[in-house]
Design brief:
about 180 residues; six-stranded mixed sheet; 9 strands; about 15% helix; disordered N terminus
């Protein structure tokens, strides 16, 4: 019976791998947070299109020892047209433990990190800007990678996610919310 369970578990893991859904190696230890907002809470206006539209400060710990780079994907799963990407950042050096507020919106940063093209058509961070009405959720997904991604600056979401999946060691998520008032309120 034990042998059959091991065979089933190995088969399930292989099926996940073949479908591009490989489980992260050490998800439980990698953590991401922000000094600007707590997990699940409101993102301050300063980090949105209604304010200065500066990326929020982020910090993390608990990366696997084999980490060679980090990637960050920020998206809004509640957008009317489907998942909307606000930030693609990759090849963040493995020694990095934080990002200051207001990361430059250039293709390549001073430390060699690269930024992709978000769904606004811009490079780097473009903050929450949902239509007036109910709050939208924003997912800040940090990935520890076994090697830097072989992508040029300006890459699109699909290419970044495909490359991440091939090198992912661990992941962590921070969620925020933002709501814009209905006009006239």
């Amino acid at each position: 019976m034990r042998k059959a369970s091991l065979v089933l578990a190995a088969g399930a893991a292989a099926a996940l791998w073949l479908h591009g859904l490989a489980p992260a190696e050490e998800s439980a230890s990698l953590r991401i947070s922000s000094d600007a907002f707590a997990d699940g809470k409101l993102i301050p206006k300063d980090h949105t299109c209604d304010g200065a539209d500066r990326s929020p400060p982020l910090h993390w710990d608990g990366a696997p020892e084999r980490t060679q780079a980090f990637a960050l994907v920020v998206d809004d799963p509640d957008a009317p047209s489907g998942v909307f990407t606000h930030w693609l950042l990759y090849n963040v050096p493995a020694a990095a433990k934080a990002l200051d507020a207001g990361v430059a919106t250039t293709g390549t940063l001073g430390d060699g990190s690269r930024q992709g093209t978000n769904d606004f058509g811009h490079t780097g961070w473009s903050g929450p800007c949902p239509p007036p009405g109910s709050a939208h959720r924003y997912q800040f997904k940090l990935y520890a990678l076994s090697a830097p991604l072989e992508l040029e600056p300006g890459a699109k979401r699909a290419a970044v996610l495909k490359a991440i999946n091939e090198k992912k060691l661990a992941d962590a998520e921070l969620k925020g919310r933002y709501e814009r008032s209905k006009r006239g309120e």
